[in-house]
Write a structure and sequence with these properties.
heterodimer; A: 104 residues; three-stranded antiparallel sheet; 4 helices; B: 758 residues; mainly beta; nine-stranded mixed sheet; 43 strands; 10% helix; elongated
């Protein structure tokens, strides 16, 4: 688990991610991603494949084996970059309480 | 949904041989089956296109679908015990090291009739306290519990006793190492009417489980059991305080698990011959209560390894009934094939190798299908169990239908990347069960941005390339290599590896080295190969053991004292910790892994050496492989490089290497004695793939790419690219009979991590 805490100084890193969610991050953004992509299994966002290489729906991992993956119907994507940005915003809000679209 | 599953009794067969096929359907009345040849398993629209070829062979379908369950959970069964006298006293004693006390009822020892339930059992109750119960035919169970939960991973002596003289039922638990202010000892007695007690049943004795009506066993124990005993009398209080010896009076059975550790048998030392057998491969060769660090090898001091670790999720053989058998045509070509099961939109592939007829070769080159490595990754739960998968891959984890299936069907069994339900590591992996991630069309998790393929399906990138090239090739498996030794390679001028032949046994390594020493030419088209030592079971088919001792990139560390394989007694771990680093065999060894993006190689000075001129004929350079389906480059995922201190031959030519990777690429722990800043791919020089070439004394040679991603670049631009050109050049020269001249050795052993060509 990362001990890093996001501050307003990280908004520039959020902008970097928005510009290229599938790119190789710089060190500052990587530190933010280490925090946002860390965390336990339970509730972790995943992309559930609806059609390979074409369509995905957001899901969340359960706590234990044997339990179903939660499917977040309606949160479908046909573009991996869009999916990454959506999850980045969800996690940013969960970490900071701030709506990233409004902040940027 | 995955509603049709199957497996075969073998993973390699020669023309004319038979294969048994086991199938289970959920909600499907009927299915059909065909034989197909696997050519290219990647379904990425940006890839070369999925290709399979139908083989004209009537397999006898359509078949009636039926459900066949998977009964996970390990235990011991002792048949043949005479019924105990209905009116006699009885005691059960065992040492236990529970790992999941409080997670349901867990049996230590039982003897119960599965139909009537009559009998007795010593167990942990749902609270995790020792309990002892009797059930008379047609009566409700009568039991007692200490009501004192045991602490996980601590040794206890537990006793259950019935005294027929006074009807006293007693249960005792005593920690072998008591702690002040920790109250985990207990003794409880109560009287029960004789009519409630039934001991005169003929059912088998079970250790670590009790019988069930709808499956072989239930309420499995999680943890270690040592020295279980049954007595035909009640034990005195002082006898319940210490483990009884095998010379104790009135012993009915006394199982000594330190005997036959490498077998599936358990031995009764009471003299009553109540020997038993194990089901679903619980872990042996583990420390018992007496282990004190004096000896780390179980076969040198077996009395310290007198425990067996049982798990409720152990699985060796599904033992399904055979649904059909196929006889391979006499003239079928060698290759990778699959039995294709299908019903409507449901489909399932069971891949296997058709090897050439025994004792022959049908092509000058052989591809070794790395089936031991497929077993090592069988049904891995990397996408669903490991939260760090996203962070190490640098992208959201994609959950495929097979992941959803494994999540809701954990009984399908585990592999070397998983933990048991009790958190202990998995040491055994079997192929006698459906392996859902060993199919064409499957997408992995660690395969890099792009096609994201891993192991079997990634290897079809090489099969597809060979097919497109029109190069005849044979396919043999790791199991062939293990079973037949270097004879399996006799007659081949060249051998090609898979993308990630990570798991090798001593026998497999010996065979490959022997063939190479005799003039063979080896094309290692992968990364992180020849890394972990595995042991094949000496008698049971289709199962390997791997204990990742000391260090290395691993999902867990074995406990101290448990570094020796129970199957064979071999010391385990990395081959480099066993005196045989991969560098000696293929010139390079694992240095880093990262699963986001791959990088290109840059051609180095040594590429101009006349010895290796053939490699780069028609190649422009200096950058090669800045494209591909496995991370967008030819150098990626897991990387190998030279290290003369680890045995890279001194005349090795480093032809090309990658220069810069992302910081998700990190050094391996075995190279990181003293962590310092700058260990990521943008800074650490050690993080690189090195493409190498060297000649062997027998006139043969080795070409290694040092990257799992290499094969993902072969099909770029319709196979017209530098990666494919280099691979073709090497194959062409390696198939040329002209011996490679012995190379001049320019220097003596070089220190550190410099390369001979630098």
């Amino acid at each position: 688990m990362s001990r890093y805490r996001i501050t307003r100084d990280d908004l520039k890193h959020a902008a970097e991610f928005r510009a290229d969610p599938l790119g190789i991050p710089g060190p500052g953004l990587q530190r933010v991603l280490n925090l946002l992509r860390g965390g336990p299994r339970s509730g972790k966002y995943v992309l559930v494949v609806k059609e390979p290489f074409q369509r995905w729906v957001l899901g969340r991992l359960p706590a234990d084996r044997g339990q179903s993956v939660e499917i977040m119907e309606g949160l479908e994507f046909t573009d991996l970059a869009e999916a990454e940005w959506e999850v980045f915003k969800l996690r940013w809000k969960a970490n900071t309480g701030q709506d990233l679209e409004r902040e940027l | 949904m995955t509603r049709i599953l199957g497996y075969a009794d073998r993973v390699s067969a020669a023309p004319g041989e038979r294969i048994q096929v086991m199938v289970s359907c959920e909600g499907l009345e009927q299915y059909d089956a065909n034989l197909i040849r696997v050519i290219q398993g990647d379904i990425n629209p940006s890839g070369p296109g999925y290709r399979e070829e139908s083989v004209s062979l009537d397999l006898g379908g359509p078949f009636k679908g039926r459900y066949q369950p998977i009964n996970a959970g390990s235990h011991a069964v002792v048949n043949g015990a005479a019924p105990f006298n209905a009116r006699t006293s009885l005691s059960v004693q065992a040492l236990i090291w529970p790992t999941l006390p409080g997670r349901g009822s867990q049996t230590i020892l039982s003897r119960e009739d599965p139909e009537s339930g009559a009998g007795f059992r010593l167990y942990l109750d749902p609270k995790g306290a020792a309990a002892f119960a009797f059930t008379a035919k047609g009566k409700k169970s009568e039991g007692i519990s200490t009501e004192m939960p045991l602490i996980a991973e601590r040794w206890y002596l537990v006793n259950g006793s019935y005294d027929a003289k006074n009807g006293a039922l007693t249960v005792v638990q005593r920690p072998l190492k008591p702690y002040p202010k920790v109250n985990d000892a207990g003794k409880v007695s109560r009287t029960v009417p004789a009519s409630m007690v039934s001991t005169d049943i003929e059912a088998p004795i079970m250790i670590a489980a009790r019988p069930a009506t709808d499956r072989p066993a239930m309420e499995h124990f999680n943890g270690r059991i040592e020295a279980p005993k049954v007595f035909s009398r009640s034990l005195k209080t002082e006898e319940m305080e210490n483990p009884a010896g095998t010379d104790c009076k009135d012993l009915v059975a006394a199982w000594d698990f330190s005997v036959g550790i490498s077998t599936e048998q358990i031995t009764d030392k009471s003299g009553n011959q109540l020997h038993g057998h194990l089901v679903n491969l619980p872990t042996r060769g583990v420390c018992g209560h007496a282990w004190n660090g004096d000896e780390h090898c179980w076969h040198k001091k077996p009395e310290h390894y007198a425990a067996i670790h049982f798990h409720d999720d152990d699985l060796y053989d599904c033992a399904w009934k055979t649904d059909f058998e196929i006889r391979l045509p006499d003239h079928i070509s060698s290759g990778v094939y699959a039995i294709y099961l299908h019903s409507g939109s449901e489909e399932y592939y069971i891949p296997f190798s058709v090897r050439p007829p025994r004792g022959t070769t049908t092509a000058p080159v052989a591809f070794i299908l790395p089936t031991a490595s497929y077993m090592a990754y069988a049904n891995n739960r990397i996408g669903i169990d490991l939260p760090e998968t996203e962070i190490v891959c640098g992208r959201l984890t994609q959950i495929n239908p097979i992941d959803l299936f494994m999540q809701t069907h954990p009984e399908i069994g585990l592999c070397f990347y998983d933990l048991h339900n009790d958190g202990s590591g998995v040491f055994y992996s079997s192929r006698l069960r459906p392996i859902v991630n060993m199919q064409p069309k499957q997408i992995g998790h660690l395969g890099g941005a792009g096609s994201n393929l891993w192991q079997f399906n990634a290897d079809t990138h090489i099969l597809g390339w060979l097919e497109q090239l029109g190069q005849p090739f044979d396919v043999i498996t790791d199991e062939d290599l293990e079973a037949e030794g270097s004879k399996a390679l006799e007659g081949y001028r060249a051998v090609i590896t898979g993308t990630h032949p990570e798991y090798y046994s001593a026998g497999m390594l010996d065979s490959l080295q022997f063939w190479l020493d005799g003039g063979g030419r080896l094309m290692y088209l992968g990364g992180n190969g020849f890394y972990w030592r595995v042991s094949w079971h000496p008698t049971l088919p289709g199962v390997i053991e791997c204990r990742k001792s000391e260090d290395g990139i691993r999902a867990f560390a074995p406990l101290p004292g448990e570094f020796y394989a129970s199957f064979t007694g071999e010391y385990t771990g990395l081959w480099r910790r066993n005196g045989r680093p991969p560098n000696e065999l293929v010139g390079i060894g694992m240095v880093s892994q990262g699963f986001d993006y791959s990088s290109p190689y840059v051609i180095r000075e040594a590429s101009r050496d006349p010895r290796s001129a053939f490699v780069f004929e028609g190649v422009e350079g200096p950058v090669i492989g800045d494209y591909g389906l496995s991370g967008g480059g030819a150098a990626g995922l897991e990387l190998d490089a030279t290290d003369h201190a680890l045995g890279t031959p001194p005349h090795t030519l480093v032809l090309a290497s990658s220069e810069r990777h992302s910081d998700l690429y990190l050094m391996t722990p075995e190279d990181m004695n003293d962590p310092v800043p700058g260990l990521g791919g943008t800074e650490a020089e050690i993080i690189r793939a090195e493409m190498v070439f060297f000649e062997t004394p027998g006139g043969g040679a080795v070409f290694s790419t040092g990257s799992i991603a290499w094969s993902g670049s072969l099909s770029h631009a319709d196979y017209k690219n530098d990666v494919a050109r280099i691979t073709i050049n090497v194959l062409k020269r390696f198939l040329d009979e002209t011996p490679f001249a012995p190379a001049p050795v320019k220097a003596s052993r070089q220190p550190g991590k410099t390369t001979c060509s630098d």
